[in-house]
């Protein structure tokens, strides 16, 4: 009996350790910090690289680190990193602290001792960021994370013609998560303390237990934005929609293991939030109801249309009599939306097509609830006669008929008959969303479904309507 209890205890401990002692997948990282430049020295870059390497070791990464590397050393270590990542698989991470520049839209990270005196020197003696991405992509591993705290003051402003400030936008491929310390084209701060503002908050976020990759970089972005008073906003782009946690601690290990576990092989338990799983690109096109809180604490409600625009989404809000527009880009299962105000909005994609948003400065929040999704692919344009059912803002139900006609150039005319009353409006179709102005303060916005139905919101989300083809 005592032996059986001892064996049960040992099996339980093995399960717990399997879930909590280190990462389940291989993790390989290359960290480079260049600070001792002949001109434009960066006192914090080496500290930044050292602190990032330390926190990644604690997160289970097999580390390669270089400081004050010249071009030959940088190229060699990048190639070696690519080979190691290909052999190990799993997770790859590249971090660079130092000077970075863009020339004609191409990004370069700058070695030390480069003797750069012209634009030609920069092209020949700096390291093209594409070399890093190619080395990581060739590994064909599960997830690659690229972090560039490299948008600091350009030390060569008078010696180049095609160079622009900061770095150029870098779109991510499948399975890649990219973060810059500041938005493309802008210049980041080196910081007055031990670290740059970006790396300071990045290290703290990576070290926090059980944060998803999106929450890690969201916390970093908010910390930098708030510390710098909005002067610096980190940039994130990702086409990775799976789960990854830098520092997992929670487990689902059972508190009791039955005797059958002693003879039946079992896989170790997985963490409560998987460290790495695959995911699919969310389909977000549609019409949403918005419910939010302004910086002054007042509440608002409205409606929002999300329309695909390449890899991004166009946002359009109707809040009371006001109309706002913005563009959102994916950062994993998060959308970062720039909307003309200083503070971007960070939306987390939740279950049931709900988007939970928070301003980067922490002063306001918003929740978007999907009312109707639009077809994801091209379908027949709306046309012909429809049966109408709807609900007024006061809750009253109505029904009637409608007719949609097109001029063949994405312009539409709608005519409704509801009881004895007739209405007319004109609209435009974009991304399977039909927006119709009909004389009210806000339009009616329909999401066109694959079966041809149109489901729409009007009166700022207070009213709703469905059109069913009358075939």
DSSP E strands, number: 28
> Which fold name is given in CATH as the topology of the largest domain?
Rossmann fold
**Count of helical regions:** 7
| Terminal residue distance | 75 Å
Shape: elongated
Question: What is the alpha-carbon Rg in Å?
Answer: 27 Å
Mean pLDDT: 85
Record the strand order, biggest sheet: 13-14-15-16-17-18-19-20
CATH architecture type of the largest domain: 3-Layer(aba) Sandwich
Plain-language structure description:
The protein has helices at 2-20, 45-58, 71-88, 119-125, 129-137, 197-207, 213-227; strands spanning 27-33, 62-67, 91-97, 100-103, 106-109, 127-128, 143-149, 163-164, 176-180, 235-238, 243-244, 276-277, 286-293, 299-309, 312-319, 322-330, 334-338, 345-350, 354-359, 365-373, 384-391, 397-406, 411-418, 421-430, 433-437, 444-448, 454-458, 463-469. The radius of gyration is 27 Å and the shape is elongated. It folds into four domains: 2-17 and 248-277, no CATH class; 23-244, Rossmann fold, CATH 3.40.50.1460; 286-373, Quinohemoprotein amine dehydrogenase alpha subunit, domain 2 (Lipocalin); 384-469, Quinohemoprotein amine dehydrogenase alpha subunit, domain 2 (Lipocalin). With 471 residues, it is of the alpha+beta class.
């Amino acid at each position: 009996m005592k032996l059986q209890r001892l064996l049960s205890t040992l099996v339980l401990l093995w399960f717990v350790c399997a879930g909590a002692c280190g990462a389940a997948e291989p993790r390989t990282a290359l960290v480079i910090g260049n600070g001792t430049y002949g001109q434009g020295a960066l006192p914090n870059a080496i500290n930044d690289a050292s602190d990032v390497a330390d926190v990644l070791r604690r997160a289970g990464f097999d580390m390669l680190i270089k400081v004050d590397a010249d071009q030959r050393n940088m190229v060699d270590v990048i190639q070696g990193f690519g080979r190691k990542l290909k052999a190990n698989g799993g997770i790859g991470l590249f971090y660079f602290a130092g000077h970075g520049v863009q020339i004609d839209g191409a990004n370069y990270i700058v070695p030390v001792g480069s003797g750069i005196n012209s634009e030609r020197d920069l092209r020949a003696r700096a390291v093209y960021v594409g070399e890093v991405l190619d080395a990581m992509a060739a590994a064909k591993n599960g997830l690659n994370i690229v972090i560039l705290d490299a948008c600091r003051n350009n030390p060569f402003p008078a010696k180049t013609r095609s160079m622009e400030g900061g770095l150029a936008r870098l779109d991510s491929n499948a399975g890649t998560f990219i973060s810059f310390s500041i938005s493309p084209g802008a210049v980041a701060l080196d910081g007055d303390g031990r670290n740059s503002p970006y790396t300071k908050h990045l290290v703290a976020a990576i070290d926090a237990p059980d944060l998803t990759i999106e929450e890690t970089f969201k916390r970093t972005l908010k910390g930098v934005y708030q510390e710098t008073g909005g002067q610096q906003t980190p940039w994130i782009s990702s086409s990775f929609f799976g789960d990854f946690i830098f520092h997992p601690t929670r487990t689902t290990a059972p508190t009791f293991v039955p005797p059958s576990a002693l003879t039946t092989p079992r896989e170790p338990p997985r963490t409560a939030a998987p460290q790495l799983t695959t995911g699919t690109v969310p389909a977000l096109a549609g019409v949403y109801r918005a419910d939010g809180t302004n910086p002054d604490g007042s509440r608002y409600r409205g409606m929002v249309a999300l329309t695909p625009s390449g890899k991004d989404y166009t946002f359009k809000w109707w809040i009371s009599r006001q109309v706002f527009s913005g563009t959102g880009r994916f950062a994993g299962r998060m959308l970062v939306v720039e909307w003309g105000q200083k503070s971007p909005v960070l939306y987390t994609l939740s279950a049931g097509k709900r988007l939970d948003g928070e301003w980067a400065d922490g002063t306001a929040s918003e929740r978007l609830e999907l009312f109707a999704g639009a077809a994801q692919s091209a379908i027949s344009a709306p046309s012909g006669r429809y049966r109408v059912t709807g609900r007024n803002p006061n809750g009253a139900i109505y029904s009637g008929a409608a007719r949609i006609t097109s001029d063949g150039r994405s312009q539409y005319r709608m005519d409704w008959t509801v009881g004895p009353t007739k209405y007319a409006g004109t609209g435009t179709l974009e991304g399977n969303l039909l927006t119709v102005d009909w004389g009210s303060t806000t339009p009616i916005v329909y999401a066109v479904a694959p079966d041809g139905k149109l489901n729409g919101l009007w009166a700022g989300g207070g009213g709703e309507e469905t059109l069913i083809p009358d075939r």
